[in-house]
Amino acid sequence: MKYIPLVWAAIMRKPTRAVLTLLSVMVAFTLFGLTIGMNATFDAVLAAAKDNRIYTIPRFAGGMTTMPLAITHAIERIPGVAEVGYQNYIPGYIKDPKNRVFVQLYGDNARKVFTEYPITPAQWDLLHNERDGVLVSQYQADKWHLKSGDILTVISPQVKKADGSTTWTFKVLAITGDMAYNTNGYIWGNFDYFDKARPLASQGLVMNLQVQTSDAGRTAEIAQNIDNSFANSPNSTQSITEKAAMDVSNSGVDIAKVDREIALAGMFMVLFLTANGIAQAVRERFAEFATLKTIGFSDWGVIGLVFAEAALPCCLGAILGVGLSVVLSDLIPHVMPPSMGTPPLPRITAMVAVWAGLCALVVALASSALPALRLKQMDIATALSGR
Amino acid sequence: MSSAVSLRQVVKHYRRGKESVEVLHGLNLEIPEGEFVSLMGPSGSGKTTILNLVGGLDHADAGEIIVGGEHLEKLSGGQLAKWRSHHIGFVFQFYNLMPMLSAAGNVELPLLLTNLTKAERQRRVAVALEIVSLGDRAKHKPGEMSGGQQQRVGIARAIVADPSILLCDEPTGDLDRATADEILGLLQQLNRQHKKTIVMVTHDPKAADHASRQLEMDKGSLVERALAPA
C-alpha cells in the first residue's frame, strides 16, 4: 500500500496520456464484458436446455412448412419416446403492423412436455377448459398492457380462418411467469381451437413437434431413429436434441467463437497500448529508476513498480469497463425497437468479472515484461552517468 | 579509529569499443569513520568510479572493497541493494529527484524500504527536511524549487535513513558559488554534528577545501593534497 502514491504519481505524471489509456482500456473491457457475457448467456441457455427433449420439423422446412398431425402417433411408437407435443403458430400484429406478436398454439399434452415452465396446474386447466384462451407471460403482458380477462386481438395476414378472416381473437386467462432465457416471453393458446378455425385443407397440420424421451442418455439416438423412420416418406423429418439446438457452436457461425475472438482482439489492443505506454514511460525515466536502485530498491522492487504502473490502469479499466457493460446490457431492452423484441442479453456473471481481472493482470504482466527485463539488466553506474 | 572505507589493490577496467581501459591500477584507500574526504582529479581519472565501487553500484575487477566492515565483492545484487539502503546515502550533481513527487515524497523514498509506520516515516522526513532547513517546503515539487533547494532535498533524502556514509558526486557542480557554499556548509555540519563519513567527488578546489582531507586522482592512483590554510 505504501508504494501506491509513488505508482499513482508516476502514472499521473502525464495526465492526458493516463486518461486516454484508461479510456481505451475501459472500452476494450466493455467489449470484453459484453462478448464474454454473451457467451455466459449461451452457456447458461445450454445448461438449462433439457437433455430429454427433441424438436422435430419437416426436413425441407421453409416459410411455414407443415407436416400432418398424424405423424405424432407414428413417433409415439418409436422406442424411448415418452411424449410427443405439437405446435403451430400465428404470426401477426396487434392493431399496427409494427406491433409484432406470435401466438404459439400447443396440443393438450404441452403440460407434460414443458414441465419446467412456471405454469401452475390450475393455469394449465384453465387453458384446457377455455379453448379460445391464452396464457400470457409477464413480459408480453407488460409489453401489450394485458391482464387476465382482457381480449387479445391478433391480425395475421398469413394465417387465415375458414371464413377468410385474418383476425384472431383470444381471451387472456392468466398472466404466467417468464422463463429466464426466453427473453421475449410467450403467448400460448390451444392448437385445437386454432385447427378447427382453419380452412379444411389446412386442418390437421403442425409446424413442429416436441418429443420427450424416457432415457436422456439416448435422446440423440432417438432423434436419429425418428428421422430414419420417415426417411423415405413424403413427410421426412429433421430432428435435433434441445441440447444441440441450444449449442451455438452447432450453428452455421459459431457465435461464441466470434465473441471470444472479438474479446481477444480487444485484449491485444489493450496489450499493445499498455506495452507501448510502459515502454515509453520506462525509457523516459530510466535515470529515475537508476536513482531508485541507488537508494536501495532491489531489481524486483523496481520491476514491481513498473508492473504496478501497468496493472493499475489495466485493473481500473477492467473494473470500469465491466461495470459499463453491466449498465449497457441492462439498457439494451430499453433501446431496442418494440417490433424487434428483446435479443438474448449478456449476463455479466462473477466468472466474467474474474476472467476480466485475470486478463487485466496478464496484459499488465506481458506489457511490463520487456521494460522489466531492461531494468533488471540496467548498469546503474552507466544509467546514472546518462551514457 | 576504525575504517569506514577500505579499498585494497583495487583494479577496474572499462571497455570502450574493442579497447579495454584500466582506470584504477591496484588502488589503495583508507577512510576512517567520521572523515570528510574530497576526491579531485581530471575528467575520466576514475573519481566517480571510486564512488560507485564504494557505494556498491559497480564491481571491481580485482582487489577488496570493505565498507562499514562489509566485503562488497561477496554480496549479491539483492544483498547490495539492501546494504545500500541501510548504510549509504547518495547525493548527485543534478539532484536526481522524482519530479512528480513533493519534497517530502522524495525524502520518504528510502524509508519505503523499511518497515516503519507511515507516521514514523513522516516524522523522520520532517526531521530530515528541518536539518536541511526546508521544513516549510515539504509539499513543494522539485520544479517549484531553486537548484540549491533541490540539492537540499537530495541531501535530506540521503540522510533520512540515517546511513553512516554519504557519497556525493559533484554536489555543487550545478550551483552558483553562494549556493554551493551553503550546501558545502550543510555537508560540513552533517560531518561534524551528525558524524557522517563523507566522500565527495568534485572538480572545484574551493569545494574540496571544505573537506578535512583532500585526495587527488593521478593516472589511476591517489595522492594526498595539502590542506589549504584555514
Structural summary, described in words:
The complex is a heterodimer of chains A (387) and B (230). By secondary structure, chain A is α+β, with helices and mostly antiparallel strands. Chain A is 52% helix and 17% strand. In chain A, the strands form two sheets. Chain A has a nine-stranded mixed beta sheet, sandwiched between helices. Chain A has a two-stranded antiparallel sheet with strand order 2-9. The longest helix of chain A is centred in the C-terminal third of the chain and has 37 residues. The model of chain A has no long low-confidence stretch (mean pLDDT 89). Chain B is of the alpha/beta class and 230 residues long. Chain B has a six-stranded mixed beta sheet with strand order 6-7-8-3-9-10. In chain B, a hairpin with a 2-residue loop joins strand 9 and strand 10. In chain B, helix 4 packs across helix 5 and helix 5 runs parallel beside helix 6. Chain B is globular, with a radius of gyration of 17 Å. At the A-B interface, helix 1, helix 11, helix 12 and helix 14 of A face helix 1 and helix 2 of B.
Overall average pLDDT of chain B:
90
How many distinct helices of chain A?
Answer: 14
Structural class of chain A: alpha+beta
The residue ranges of chain A in which pLDDT falls below 50 over 5 or more consecutive positions are: none
Low-confidence stretches of chain B: none
Strand order of the largest sheet of chain A: 6-7-5-8-4-3-10-1-11
What is the gyration radius of chain B calculated from CA atoms?
Answer: 17 Å
Extended strand count of chain A: 11
